[in-house]
Amino acid sequence: MTDNPVCPKTGASMHRDVRPMTLIYKDESITFDQPGWYCDQSDEGILVGKDLQISDRMLNRLKARYEGLLEPEEIRRIRKKLRLSQEVAGQVIGGGSRAFQMYESGDRLPSRAISSALILLDHDPGALAMLKARPNKAATVSDRHTAHTQPRGHSGRYSPADRLR
Q1: pLDDT at 2
Q2: Residue in 33, 34, 29, 36 with CA at minimum distance from that of residue 61
Q3: Domain-by-domain residue ranges, the chain?
């Protein structure tokens, strides 16, 4: 018994293959190699798991081009030029600690603000010092835990100075 899906149109067994696929978004299009389960007797195809991830990433790339946002390779190039890890880039530039991982893989589009900030930083890397100097209100998990834990004998009230410790 085979695990291959059956073509919904012909009933024939489908097989893994790669075929060209064209996506259209507004007046832009992109053609790429799309892996999936395909039927030789019809034009039917089934996309699952990683197949869908590839088409989703290509759609995000197409949207980025149309909207004038940076594409994954440009985001990665600028981040590396700035000598930032993905996590630090997300904390300093914005989006959160996993944002740049998702931007660079193509799983998520950067916002216009993130894209614009990266373009400016690409032209003036020294401006990164200004972003790093801003207070970061986002606490790490251990910081949040510590902030809610009171030392023995503490009244439970904190002064602004206590928060800086």
Answers
A1: 58
A2: 29
A3: 15-67, 72-133
Contacts of 20 (CB under 8 A, 6+ apart): 31, 32, 33, 34
Give the Cα separation of 23 and 56 in Å (integer).
10
* Measured distance CA(4)–CA(38) in Å, rounded: 10
72-133, CATH topology level: 434 Repressor (Amino-terminal Domain) (1.10.260)
Q: Which residues contact 9 (CB under 8 A, 6 or more apart)?
A: 39, 41, 42, 44
User: For the chain, what is the mean pLDDT?
Assistant: 86
Among residues 104, 101, 22, 123, the alpha carbon closest in space to that of 64 is found at 104
160: left (phi over 0), alpha (psi -120 to 50) or beta: alpha
What's the pTM value of the predicted model, to 2 decimals?
Answer: 0.74
pLDDT tens-digit profile of 148-162?
444 444 444 544 444
Q: Are 101 and 110 in contact (CB under 8 A)?
A: no
Tell me how far apart the alpha carbons of residues 165 and 161 are, in angstroms, rounded to a whole number: 7
